[in-house]
Design brief:
This protein is of the alpha+beta class. Helices cover 59% and strands 12% of the residues. Strands 2-1-5-4-3 form a five-stranded antiparallel beta sheet, with helices on both faces. Strands 7-9-10-12-11 form a five-stranded mixed beta sheet.
Length: 674
Amino acid sequence: MLPSLGRGAAIVVLYISVAQLGLLFSFIDGNVSPIWLPSGVSVLALLVFGRRVLWACWLANVVVSVGGGMSLPVALLFACGNCVEYLLAAFLLQRFAPRLEHFGSLRDVGVLLLAGGVAPIPAALCATTTLVLVNIAPVQISPFVALTWWAGDAVGILILVPSVLVWYRLREKRALQSGVSVAALSWYGGGSLALAMLVFSDPLSLAEHGMVLVYALFLLVMWGALRLGILGATLGVLAVVMPAVVLTAAGHGPFVRHELNDTILLLMGFMVVSLIMALALSAVLIERDTAAEQARVLSKAVEQSASAVIITNPAGQITYVNPAFSALTGYESAEATGQNPRFLKSGHTSGEEYATLWKAISDGQSWRGEFLNICKDRSLVWEQMTISPLRDENGRISHFVSTAEDITQRKVNERHLRDALERAERARAELERITFAITHTLQEPLRSISGFAQLLERRYTPVLDATAQGYLGRVVNATERMYHLFHDLMHYVMVDDGSPHQPVGLETVIGNVCGALGADAVSVRVDGPLPVVMAAERQIHHVFEHILGNSVKYRDSERPLEIIVSAWPVETEESRIRKANGLPASAAEYWELSIQDNGIGIDPVFQPKLFMLFSRLHTIDDYDGTGVGLAYCRRVIERHGGRVWIESRLGVGTTVHLTLPLTLPAQKSEVEER
């Protein structure tokens, strides 16, 4: 609150001080001035501090009006009309030129002229109408007085707003700390002021014939805009306008006429023309300098680019190559200029491809592709190239720009990777055949061993002692475990067998798995509906068979078994980011499922090893198993584009989480797969 009051008080003091200065050289009854700088002060206050300081502008208006001889009711109406002017000017500037402090384009100058020309109209009309209605005006009211009021406010806004805003921006960037800049502005401002005072004091008594000297002041203002930019333009206008107003009001200079209206019109015309000329000229120069700077930066970017750049005319003749092109091909700029890029052809690319390329860029489209070109030293280089057309202001193609990147090493790496992939694929296929053959071949003798061991156990139990019977039992159990191990290994190896993916209802899968659990199926509860996913049905069935089987196997003997299966849709992190930024994203991209039990739980120390092949946390005597089940689950879920993890607390229970996408993962390219 205190800073706001302090700013408001400062605005009131500044407004009153500048107003008193303006009234010193008023033209009509000591009350109407052709340049009213307080209007610029108020608009600047609203632009810098916002509408919260509007009360200060209103109060300052009341004080100045009452001090000028107006009654309090009239002063209050005057202040309200002027505040409408300030609000309208600030709104137009903020709405249509949000970066007004730069004044870097004719658009900014146009918006400033619009605000300065339109905003004072309501205030001038309100003031004159009020004075006519109450008929207690301290001045003789006429349309010309309203015009003078309007011009004074407009000139005040047009002079102060750009100069102060630009100075404020330059001060923030420390651009005025240079003594040369400050000295140049000081010299220019002082010189302009002195010359203007000389012209309008009319020491040679030239009177109307001294108008020719006014044109010299125009040249001076133009020089300031050319050399010192927007600050020089506004400073020069202020330096020549102030003496013009003061000395003309005193009856000196080339603008003095017998009719006061003619004098004021000449003075206002001089001020308005000076302002428009100076502001427009400085804006044009800033636009030119900005364009030149952009061109310089782009030129440097092309020169220093790591990619080879070629520019050709529409006929295909090279007009420019950058240093990266010379480093890549060995041809200097002078050697390449004037030639057609076909001098780099190695013969690898067919004529049909070149025809397709030329048709695309001639139609105004960009072309991307790879070339195998030949360098100056006759070596070959692979290039990833993009060719785009450039159009002139009439829409015609004026040039073609080609950027090329050396991808020779990448092509070599791709070839090596492709060879390695083919070798790995052959080895994997061979390993699968060997594993499949081993598991099938060894199952037959295992069945024979198991069968004969069971036959011995049934027929010769009476004649065998306890030790022999124990041995036979161990043989039977070992063959059974080996059979299950081979069975699980076959499933693990055949995960990549290309099983078709189709819609699979997980409720049906859970029901089928529970049917094989027998009496333990009553412990399984499905919490809410389960989704239909695209998957290999047999593999998903085995996944839930392993997970639910583990929940049953590792139950806690001290409490009834309880297994809860649930599912819910989830979003990826990318989807959440897209939604937060207002971009389109699917509502959900994955289903997350959880299988929660109240079994014995797993010590956190051993959890990282759970999904490793042949990893077991218990001995065969404690719990049966092969150590393949969870590894199989991980491999199947990952091949379906999801992931699986476990949360468990020892003595509390275990929850297995897994995700499955709504659709199948996109088929990866060969390079991505590698």
